[in-house]
Amino acid sequence: MSVIEFILFPVSILVGLAIARLLEGLYIVSESKERYWVHTIWLCSKLGQVLLTIWTWRIGGSVGLAFGEHPTFAEMILSMATPGLIFLQAIALLGHTPKSTQNWEEHFYANRTRFFILNLMMISVTGYSSMRFGGVPVMPFFILFALSVVALVTDNRRIHGGIACLAVVVVTIGIGSTIVAAS
Prior knowledge:
Helix 1 packs parallel to helix 4 and helix 5 runs antiparallel to helix 6. By secondary structure, the protein is an all-alpha fold. The protein has helices spanning 3-31, 37-58, 63-66, 73-94, 104-133, 139-153, 157-182.
């Protein structure tokens, strides 16, 4: 087993856990009578970010494949940080027992501080690795970071709705730009 395979094994587990948790959450939320559209948009955005992470590894522009034959311990941890943080965000968005959640709007605002602190950490790690290893435009990270700071300090529901929509647009642009870069 090469060093890259050794590192990608736990990373793949984290990616799989994040995808499974987000898909399960989308299913449960879609069946709920008290779903909240902002919460649902964030679930979709996080799923898109996991897929974007996988795609950037495919083209070799992110931490997953860009550190060479002999990655350092720090590079190994860095490669696990993004999918790990997205998995933790999925837990923050869904809780430990999502089927028992009655009101997703209340749940979202009760857990938004944890979610956006994790989001700031994930954006910082992913932005750093993108700048260090190249291949992914950096501007979306600055935009997402600024949006997350605003979301962290406000509880205005309209602002949260706008931020969630803008985050999806930025992630979509990020996915599109990496697809173009790979062509």
